Amino acid sequence: MNNTNDPIIRLIEVSKRYGKFEALKEIDLDVRKGERIVVCGPSGSGKSTLIRCINRMEEHTSGQIIINGHELTDKTKDIDAVRSEIGMVFQSFNLFPHMTILKNLTIAQRLVRKTPKAEARDTAMHYLGRVKIPEQANKYPIQLSGGQQQRVAIARALCMKPQIMLFDEPTSALDPEMISEVLDVMVDLASDGMTMLCVTHEMGFARSVADRVIFMDHGQLIEQAEPETFFNHPQHERTALFLRQILRH
Amino acid sequence: MDAMTGWWDDYFWASITVAEVFVCSLFFMVIFGLLGASAKLSSNAVARSLANTYTVFFRGTPEILVVLLMYFGSAVTLTAIAQLFDSSIRFVDIPPFWAGTIAIALVVGSYATETFRGAFSGVNPGSIEAARALGMSNTQTLFYVRIPEMWRLALPPFGNHMLSLIKDTALISIIGLNEMLFVAKQATSTTGKPFTMYIVVGVIYLGFSTIITLATMLLERFANRHVRRAP
């Protein structure tokens, strides 16, 4: 297999076009196993598109994306198998509304992993405990608050025992008082050694958890650095401007 | 009601026939509707235009005509084929039960196509994306996420389609199926009491449609169980 020093995610000159619009322009990025990366940038900068290309929710137009040594192409036979190794958390939670919380957590284990029923249930309860809402197992998503739904969504992704977790603005749709309960879960996950890519505007989270912060603008990767350097000594004027804007108040 | 004496068991068996036609045509109606809706939502242009032709034809022609065309059309075709092998054969048909069942299933299925198409479009794309991101295949996503979510949206108009089906069973008397209207016609010619004979048919149909309406209500309550908040 691949060397442990090889990146778990490698992007080589990845571009993505929607018609004439270039959403991503020749992005190069390596992510090591266990690395925690925060992606930030103004809206429309391509940060969501970037992480959505990593589990092929979007197809890149050119360049190479290599996950764990496997390149993602049209010919990737088992894209479902690749996806099952990559957990994804969405801005709008996207729980299955017609299933109970427990069913939301077991369905993919049963269908994709063919996990026996009792084992899938145990795994689900384990992760529900980890996101601190085991008592909600038999409710439906709509009966939960936004923060609780997002924690369920994280638990649902974790039940697949993924090697990589992608977060696409996980706290942007939440009321302010619920943001910290979701961030707590993410911090806990980070301290566990999970490889994480988070698109987020939570700069406090970036500062305390990230190994690397990436700034994107107009589909380009402008700057990447450790949080200390990134926040205190941004190299590019666009980064500095962005930071001034979001940290002003 | 004295005139009814001796006719009750005919009405009973005829209403059983109606129930049988209803159940069979319901099955095919759902199949036609789902096939039509998938074709209309498909990226394949041939499938889309086939489905469009289907809905334009069956929504645009009288149901009674479809029943007649289905029965005589299949009979003419089958007879022609049979005569190729044995010229002494005069007439071959498919049983009126099946010709009628398929005919009304095709008609109501064309309406159900539009219902299902709309309901599939109403499913939250985020749910589908979440299923795919978890590694579920297209087929698994269809059966475990898209159809169960679509179902809730489709139910109210689907209840109407079931009512159409039960009423359309009356059309099959025209090709000689021994159903209620057929019995009422015979009873009228024997007893000379058309109003009595036809009002009984009306009451039985009302009974059927009441059951269907109640069943739809219960199904809707079940389908919406996750939408109600806890008290």
Provide an overview of this structure:
The complex is a heterodimer of chains A (249) and B (231). With 249 residues, chain A is of the alpha/beta class. Chain A has helices at residues 47-54, 79-84, 101-113, 117-130, 146-158, 176-190, 203-209, 227-232, 237-247, and strands at 9-18, 21-31, 36-40, 62-67, 70-71, 86-89, 164-168, 195-199, 212-217, 220-225. Chain A has a 6-stranded mixed sheet with strand order 6-7-8-3-9-10, sandwiched between helices. A 4-stranded antiparallel sheet of chain A has the order 2-1-4-5, covered by helices on one side. Chain A is globular, with a radius of gyration of 18 Å. Chain A starts with 8 loop residues before the first strand and ends with a helix. With 231 residues, chain B is mostly helical. Chain B is built from 8 helices and no strands. Chain B is flat, with a radius of gyration of 21 Å. The termini of chain B are far apart. The model of chain B has no long low-confidence stretch (mean pLDDT 92). At the A-B interface, helix 2, strand 6, helix 3 and helix 5 of A face helix 5 and helix 6 of B.
CATH topology of the domain at 21-178 in chain B: MetI-like fold
DSSP, total strands of chain A: 10
Compute the CA-based radius of gyration of chain B: 21 Å
Q: What is the CATH class designation of the domain at 21-178 in chain B? A: Mainly Alpha
Q: What is the CATH architecture assignment of the domain at 21-178 in chain B?
A: Orthogonal Bundle
What is the percentage of strand-forming residues of chain B? under 5%
Helix run count of chain B: 8
- Percentage of β-strand residues of chain A: 15-25%
Number of strands of chain B: 0
